[in-house]
Amino acid sequence: MSDLPAVPPPPYRSNDPYETSGVQAGFQLPRSIWHAMFACYAVFFLGIFIATGRDAATVMMLVISGLYMLMFFGTAKLLNTQKGREHDSPLDRTDGVLDTWTGPMDRHTVAAQILAVPAGFAFLGVTFVIVRATAGF
What we know:
Helix 1 (31-52) runs parallel beside helix 3 (107-135). The chain has helices spanning 31-52, 56-83, 107-135; strands spanning 98-100, 103-105. It is elongated. A hairpin with a 2-residue loop joins strand 1 (98-100) and strand 2 (103-105). It is built from three helices and two strands. It is mainly alpha-helical.
């Protein structure tokens, strides 16, 4: 025992980089954002396939690109299950914020930043289908 007054433990932070409890911080993204990202890329590839998938070479390139997308999401899933349990996302809580280098972000801001590019790709895929349908299949 020390003669010094007891120091209260530091406040718990959900994304503490010095976590020692065996639970890791991880990405801390809700599953809904991962699912939305996957859905956006699926819409993109489906749109591109509908608009351009007329010959074997195009279909082969689309299949290869789709496999790369599955490899991206599959690797993230594999590594996530390999490393063990994570804290729940702070964004799953009411009024939860995600601490980032640029400051705390709410659920809508995180979703907008992460899903901007995938949503753009989905829009591009739908646009290709519309242009192709307008020009005649």
